[in-house]
Amino acid sequence: MPDIIPFDDRDGFIWWNGALIPWRDARPHVLSHGLHYASAVFEGERVYGGKVFRLSAHSERLIQSGRLLGFEIPYTPAEIDAATKLVVQANGCADAYVRPIAWRGSEMMGVAAAKTKINLAIATWDWPSYFTPEAKMKGIRMQLADWRRPSPDTAPTKSKATGLYMICTMSKHKAEDEGFDDALMLDWRGQVAEATGANVFFAREGKLYTPPADCFLDGITRRTVMGLARERQIDVVERAILPSELAEFEECFLTGTAAEVTPVSEIADWRFTPGRMSLALMEDFARATRA
To answer: In this structure, what DSSP letter does residue 78 have?
Structure first.
């Protein structure tokens, strides 16, 4: 196994509260509120050929995520767009990943921390495919997660908030420990929701099915792929999907900034064949990111 390069010990620059600083100097205090109480929101973005895909949509969602957690990021979407382009250029990134994150600082410690400073940092680095090319072409293997996505009246599910990913990390670790690539999460009702970091689609008889994003993030890649499917005259059906229905579907794939479009070959006892629709939308998405 290759040596792991820690993310706190790399060369390059990070945009930090309005300026580029050396990578290793980007260190928040250990008593930052965001670390202790998960008062932080983030985005995941991809650079293709030096250009960030759907950058403004990500910047706007970042600001909205902060508002859902009760704080205002002190930059406009246009300013965040400009900062992102600056850090991508400074690090010489042609094909890479971008991580903006905003969090409450260390001015107050306790559940209530309305007077904390809101910080914003943006980093970018080279990152290969979330799943190996071989796994993507034959379809990844998934199990069912033990944890479920919460109800919208118990958590700010429309926010890309750090705290909402704790059960995703736990579920993905368990899946990998047991020889799988990822896990499918149900929601609090027992309906199909999403993977640990990506949205899920199913195909049957020429139609595409996906659960409505009513308790998980409505992914930007998800919406892009739905648009690409409609351009191909494919009917896209958003409706509740029960686990008992999975045996009826022919294809399955995930969508997300990291996953892009990734076919699935199995979920627990259900089997799927990466077929015409999955592969066509994978190719369409690849072209869209380079347009």
So the answer is: H
Query: Which residue is it, tokens 């008889």?
Result: 205
**What residue segments make up the domains of the chain, in order of their start?**
13-125, 133-289
Is this prediction's pTM over 0.90?
yes
Q: Six-digit token pair at 62?
A: 């970042």
Q: What CATH number is given for 13-125 in this structure?
A: 3.30.470.10
pLDDT tens string 148-190: 999 999 999 999 999 999 999 999 999 999 999 999 999 999 9
> From residue 86, how far is each of 21, 75, 165 by CA, in Å?
12, 15, 28
pLDDT digits (tens, 9 = 90+) for 43-93: 999 999 999 999 999 999 999 999 999 999 999 999 999 999 999 999 999
Phi, psi angle pair for 238, to nearest 5°:
-100, 115
Domain 133-289 classified CATH 3.50.50.60? no
Is 160 a known active-site residue? yes
* Side chain identity at residue 42, one-letter code: F
Catalytic residue from among 117, 160, 172, 174: 160
Q: Which amino acid, 248?
A: E
Give me the DSSP letters along 128-176: --SS-HHHHHH-EEEEEEEEEEPPTTTS-TTS-BGGGGHHHHHHHHHHH
Size of the chain in residues = 291
Bridge-partner residues for 122, per DSSP?
A: 15, 100
Cα separation, 196 vs 142, whole angstroms? 10
Number of H helices, E strands in the chain: 7, 16
Q: Which two tokens stand for residue 181?
A: 């690539």
